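Hi everyone, sorry if this is the wrong subforum. Our group has a chain we'd like a structural model of before ordering constructs, and none of us has done structure prediction before. Sequence below.
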Amino acid sequence: EEVGICLSSTAGLGGSGRGFLLDPGLNPTLRFGVNLPSRAAVSPDGAVVAWTGFSLGHSYLNAGEFATTTQLIDVERSIGANLESVFSTYRNDELVTDVEANYWGVTFVDSDRFFATLGLSDSTAIVEGRVSNSRMDVVVENATCPEVSPDGRTLVAKERRGDFMQLVAIDVETGERRDLPETRSVEDQVEFADEDTILYALPNPDEGTEAQPVFDIWALDLTAGASPRMVVPFADSPAA
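Answer:
Right subforum, don't worry. Here is the predicted structure as tokens:
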């Protein structure tokens, strides 16, 4: 079943917002409250959606200065479950009990299996979760903002190296990771255009300011020898 999700910010102080599930005609079928919206995702079959909002702060850049709420919603039953309170997270089969744990950047393999970022007070990692047992396990250390390929075999994520965010491709089966040939620091969470091509936004160096940057959308093939190419100037937030 085709389904969409839309998040909107409420004007004024407070940083709240509203979320909507949409049918194929873009008609709202469910309305719900959200925190300051950050990201949304839909499982390939449309059975589950996810949204993330900031309950404190408005950026992922400074650890300890933000807090998030991330929720999965069963579309058919209109039931939501927060990752922070309903799911249990394990690292090497030991329960993660850090009260400062945050989750964001959900990406679905199917309506049961997903990946997301786990942010702790001093580090980030990628977790693999299952809706069916409300469990998440750390599968990749020192990485953030995963996006899974349509075939479920590859994650593209960001690895922090000082102040630089390096795009890496991670084999889901083996955990092997390799740097992608993007020499600029990418703050965006990438989107797969197809099995082998990712899209992401980068600031235009000749337009905008540091406070109000202007972005361009770039594409990068994951095949060896590929180079980044601009596909849409003066645009951001690509979706495919």
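For your construct planning: The mean pLDDT is 89. The CA atoms of residues 206 and 214 lie 9 Å apart.
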